[in-house]
Structures are given as structure tokens and as C-alpha cells.
Amino acid sequence: MRLVAERLGCRRGARQLFERLDFALEAGRVLIVTGPNGTGKSSLLRLLAGLSRPSAGRVRLEGVAEPDDFAENAHYLGHLDAHKAALTAQENLAFWRAVLGRPALSVADALEEVGLGGLGGLPVAVLSAGQKRRLALARLLVSARPLWLLDEPTTALDVSAQARFGALARAHVAQGGMIVAATHAPLDFGPGETLDLDRFRPVRPVAA
Ligand SMILES: Nc1ncnc2c1ncn2[C@@H]1O[C@H](COP(=O)(O)OP(=O)(O)OP(=O)(O)O)[C@@H](O)[C@H]1O
Description:
The chain is an alpha/beta fold. Helix content is 27%, strand content 26%. Adenosine-5'-triphosphate is lined by residues 12-13, 17, 35, 37-43, 182.
């Protein structure tokens, strides 16, 4: 499996954020996307997830049965955790496991993996910010999807949760998964490259 971006451009409102972006990500590799605030890291991830359209170029996933069906092969984890506050952690995760399909870990095992074993019966409303983030990350584990698109995945995580998630991410990559992660933090998710989005800002003509 291979994720390929060709001559990608992204416009938000009146601004061209980046253009002429090419990359190819192979199975078992990681792409860390960096750049100052506002360069378009989240916009790139949304674009890869199919939540918005590029202003130019295209993205494709090679080596899958339905090449255009990105959604079936990708997990997108944005800034928002997408939990129902009134439901318990277990109920939220069971919902996502049923909706996402391709079941992987059980709800109980996924909660254990992210260090939430014992808290599954609590309503999400009473969880701390870091616990909510851990629950969002557990979603990656209940449904098997090769491509993880992660926007600042370690926000609000304490040092041990960061290490724990780093190990889960490296295991995913070691099994042939792929990760594209936007981050300001140094993340070790396995072998791969760093993409500095700042290098793809549009070049403005110099005034005469
Ligand atoms: N819906 C929108 N309409 C207009 N402009 C937008 C929209 N969404 C984002 N932008 C602008 O696009 C730019 C890039 O935003 P984006 O969130 O992709 O940056 P980022 O690199 O992820 O930033 P950060 O490091 O702060 O998370 C920002 O200037 C933002 O204001």
C-alpha cells in the first residue's frame, strides 16, 4: 500500500496555504508534518482524509481494492475528540467500533492499552482532558485501518501516556501501517520522513 500526493495545493478563504506539494508514503513508514502555526498542517490532514478538496493536484491510495475509497482505509483524528459526553467511555468506543467496521481490539482491551482500564464505566463528561484524548486514541485500536491521519495526537497526554501511545503507533507501523502526523512535538512513531510545510508556501513575485 502506498499514499501518493501529487502537486497538491490548498486554499483556505482568500489564502493559498501551500502549493506544488508532492510526497509518497510507503507501507511501514511515517510522515511527520511540521511547520509554524497557520502553515496548513491541519488543512493538509483534512484534505488527505477527504474532508476538504485540494485547490490543485490529487491524492491517491495505491494497492487497495477501491483506490478512491480513502475513508474505508483511514482513521482521521483531529483536534476535537468526537465523544458523546453523556455516554460512558465504553459506550463511546463500542459505538465507534460498530460504525467503523473491520473490528480489531475489543473495547475492554483498547481501553486497557491506552491506560483507561477501570474508567470505562464513567461518563466522558467527567474524564480529564488527557483521559479524553486517550479515549480518542483508543478508537484507532478498535477498527483496523492501515492509514492513520493524526493531528497533534499527543496534546494533553502526560509523559507516560505519550510513551505508551508512541509504542502503539510504532507497532502499527511495524505491521505495515502508515501514519501521517501533524505535530509541534518531537514524535517517534517509527521510520519515515519529516515534511516541513513551510517550504511549500506560494512564492510571491518580487515587486519591480
Ligand atoms: N475554513 C477556513 N476558512 C478560512 N481560513 C481558514 C479556514 N480554516 C483554516 N483557515 C486558515 O488556514 C490557515 C491554516 O490553518 P491550519 O489549521 O491548517 O494550520 P496549522 O498549520 O495546522 O496551524 P497550527 O500549528 O496552529 O495548528 C490559518 O491561517 C487558518 O486561519
